[in-house]
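Running this now, will post back.
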Amino acid sequence: MAGPQTPSAPFRHLLVCANPSTHSFDHAIVNTYAETARGYGHGVEVRDLYALGFDPVLRDEERPGTGAWTPSADVAAELDLLNAADILVLVYPIWYGLPPAMLKGYVDRVLGANHSFRKVADNRTQSPLAGKPLLSFSTSGLSHVWLHARGQDDSLRAVFDAYLMRAFGMRRSDHVAIDEIVPNMSEHHAAAQLERVRAAARQVCDMPARADA
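Update: finished.
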């Protein structure tokens, strides 16, 4: 297998993790992805929302379209990182068919900062996200077969991935769904899933950093 190659314009990857357990498989995904991207000479910024104590609650004064809008200090810091990034990578477990409330709060307060439903309806892009790719890694204890039979996998991608891409004017949306992540899973299964993470990271690193590149 060919080793990593350093491109002329390395990516800056923003990894956002939403799992409260530091020993979770989601954290193994983050570490594996970050190690792979850094092997290409890319910059990686990891935002562990639970470890940061991120406040997911959108308050009235932060709602888009409510007059003079000024981001709070924590949101401003996250927006700076988002602006500097070339790709947004979300890593989270599926809880009751959806991402954790912590990640939804990050969407409400950071990704959707001052981006009203009217802007969505008018197809106006969200500046920190416009033209950038979105890559999501989700984990579930249940199998793909079970989720697919109940329409859960397609529903999640429509409600979350595809909506975020279209609402914010992002370049593309890809999703790696990793199933049967349970405490007694085999080492072979875990290793195979982390290899899928490496493959996805390598594919990202081989892409042009910008849509017009």
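The chain has one domain: 12-205. More later if anyone needs it.
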